[in-house]
């Protein structure tokens, strides 16, 4: 065969000289400089680099230095914004982190918080197009689509009346999986068997609540429902509930007690909540029993109640209720209503689930990271608890000192003094400080250090609801708050709260430094910077923060406000109050990510 003859120049390619290599590198650097400075590529690379820096956990020392600079007022610019994809971030309910955990007893869907040094120190931005939320009561029926543009629930559940998109809004017809025609007719039906009206029922718990239309509909009856659901495949259902102005909380019934005191709720409701009440030898039913006030009502709608192919599950559910001497009030289609016994007359007897009474060493109101127990809480184990029907009706129960106040020495006197004090203080907030309490601008309120709930009680006639938080390391006074007909949770403020960003209009805290101190010690277990960054995460743009503390602590807080992009003023306390407190009032500015931050 012949050979192809190539020209000499192509047979022997030119050898690169050092000058060629240097020249090419120079032109490449010039081109890269042009791309970085004059094109969007540079912006995106800078942002990704900054995001990597923000989310880095490799150097806690750098984080500590930043915290110290902010605390001392030496950090003269705001803390960095978190990445654009973190607009809905909840640190303790992060699916990427939790999906690696065990599925057993829903462990992976409970709260699991990163260590403080593992958390990025940055401010959560609002989503693009965010608007100041629709005000109450209009928000019950519609919210801005752009505030949480998650269409998954509307697409999957629209035919059941949960919600649907309409122009710039999501609208809420009031339906649910078990009441597609709306919660109101469903509640009217329940009212044939349960005293829905008249003030007998006041505190309710809705488990696996969807977008909380059941709880929203009960508000007009004077029943205050705390609705909960986990962060799950129905993206942001609790976020939708809170945007509507309905009390709600991210929570999962898994391996631990729910963060509420014993006998807190007059009514507990599950509408297709898919909780397996009889699993693990009825452990979940026993936890519901711990939370239900004697004489209270348990309503379960949906599986397994008279459900196809779930005969055994339905039979087991009835067996547990009988073992605990619950009175069967009605079975109507796929809905069952039970009434809990009033007292200890029915301690668990021989039963197939092996249920026994809890011993005296078990404090049934201890519920912060407390492992579930498969023992039944005796009524007598809670100080001063009163069965439904004997406790005063709403609204009288709000101001009548419950005997549960005796958890504190001189508790009744303390309760009455606390009620008077907060009536004065809230009047001062409204009349002298001109805060927006009592107006349509304030619907979702949080009291971070609630004690007996005096602040919330003073707001009872306002168009607002209050999440009363009792710090887990302080006296367990949350039972008193529920006895008064208010709602709340236990929480440790050295961890993030189980709520979505931008869910509260108004956050109140008396004694902020006490929230980070170890009990009986001057040492801190966390820092004010992280706490205020978390408060900023929960607060809506243009929302209000009120902090009461000593002048020294208020000075510390004031130094941090600039770093979290709040404006603030400092005021003297009301004239009638004793002590040396100052009051800091701050407003969260409505800032957005710049185009360079996307």
Automatic annotation (TrEMBL):
The chain crosses the membrane at residues 21-41. Keywords: Glycoprotein, Membrane, Methyltransferase, Signal-anchor, Transferase, Transmembrane, Transmembrane helix. It is found in: Endomembrane system; Membrane. It holds the Pfam family Methyltransf_29. Coiled coil: none annotated. It comes from the Eukaryota. It is a single-pass membrane protein; Single-pass type II membrane protein. Its EC number is 2.1.1.-. SUPFAM superfamilies: S-adenosyl-L-methionine-dependent methyltransferases. The keyword Transferase applies. Belongs to the methyltransferase superfamily. This is Methyltransferase.
């Amino acid at each position: 065969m012949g050979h192809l003859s190539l020209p000499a120049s192509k047979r022997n390619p030119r050898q690169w000289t050092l000058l060629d290599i240097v020249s090419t590198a120079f032109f490449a650097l010039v081109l890269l400089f042009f791309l970085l400075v004059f094109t969007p590529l540079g912006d995106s690379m800078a942002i990704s680099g900054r995001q990597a820096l923000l989310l880095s956990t490799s150097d806690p020392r750098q984080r500590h230095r930043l915290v110290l600079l902010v605390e001392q007022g030496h950090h003269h610019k705001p803390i960095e914004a978190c990445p654009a994809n973190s607009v809905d971030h909840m640190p303790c309910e992060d699916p990427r982190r939790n999906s690696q955990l065990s599925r057993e007893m829903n462990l992976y869907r409970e709260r699991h918080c990163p260590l403080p040094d593992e958390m990025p120190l940055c401010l959560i931005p609002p989503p693009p197009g965010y608007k100041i939320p629709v005000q109450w009561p209009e928000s019950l029926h519609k919210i801005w689509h752009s505030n949480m543009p998650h269409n998954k629930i509307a697409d999957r559940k629209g035919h059941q009346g949960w919600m649907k998109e309409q122009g710039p809004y999501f609208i809420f017809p009031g339906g649910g999986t078990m009441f597609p025609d709306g919660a109101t007719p469903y509640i009217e039906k329940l009212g044939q068997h349960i005293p829905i009206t008249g003030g007998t029922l006041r505190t309710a718990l809705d488990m696996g609540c969807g977008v909380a239309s059941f709880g929203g509909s009960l508000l007009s009856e004077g029943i205050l429902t705390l609705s909960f659901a986990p962060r799950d495949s129905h993206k942001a259902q609790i976020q939708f509930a809170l945007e509507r102005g309905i009390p709600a909380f991210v929570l999962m019934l898994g391996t631990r007690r729910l963060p509420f005191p014993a006998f807190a709720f007059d009514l507990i409701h599950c509408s297709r909540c898919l909780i397996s009440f009889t699993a693990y030898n009825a452990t979940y039913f026993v936890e519901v029993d711990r939370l239900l006030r004697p004489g209270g009502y348990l309503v379960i709608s949906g599986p397994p109640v008279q459900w196809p192919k779930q005969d055994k599950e339905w039979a087991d559910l009835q067996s547990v209720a009988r073992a605990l001497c619950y009175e069967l009030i009605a079975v109507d289609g796929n809905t069952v209503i039970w009434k809990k016994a009033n007292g200890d007359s029915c301690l668990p007897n021989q039963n197939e689930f092996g249920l026994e009474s809890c011993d005296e060493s078990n404090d049934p109101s201890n519920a912060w990271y407390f492992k579930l127990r498969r023992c039944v809480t005796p009524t007598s184990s809670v100080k001063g608890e009163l069965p439904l029907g004997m406790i005063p009706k709403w609204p009288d129960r709000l101001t009548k000192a419950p005997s549960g106040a005796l958890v504190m020495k001189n508790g009744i006197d303390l309760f009455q003094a606390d009620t008077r004090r907060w009536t004065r203080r809230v009047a001062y907030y409204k009349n002298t400080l001109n805060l927006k309490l009592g107006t349509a601008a304030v619907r979702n309120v949080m009291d971070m250090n609630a004690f007996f709930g005096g602040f919330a009680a003073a707001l009872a006639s306002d168009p607002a609801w209050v999440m009363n938080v009792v710090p887990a390391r302080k006296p367990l006074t949350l039972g008193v708050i529920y006895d008064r007909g208010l709602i709340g949770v236990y929480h440790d403020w050295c961890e993030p709260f189980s709520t979505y960003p931008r869910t509260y209009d108004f956050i109140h805290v008396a004694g902020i430094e006490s929230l980070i101190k170890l009990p009986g010690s001057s040492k801190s277990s966390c820092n004010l910077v992280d706490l205020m960054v978390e408060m900023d995460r929960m607060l809506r743009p243009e929302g209000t923060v009120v902090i009461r503390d000593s002048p020294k602590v208020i000075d510390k807080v004031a130094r941090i406000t600039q770093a979290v992009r709040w404006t603030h003023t400092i005021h003297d306390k009301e004239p009638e109050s004793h002590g040396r407190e100052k009051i800091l009032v701050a407003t969260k500015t409505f800032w957005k990510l710049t185009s360079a931050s996307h």
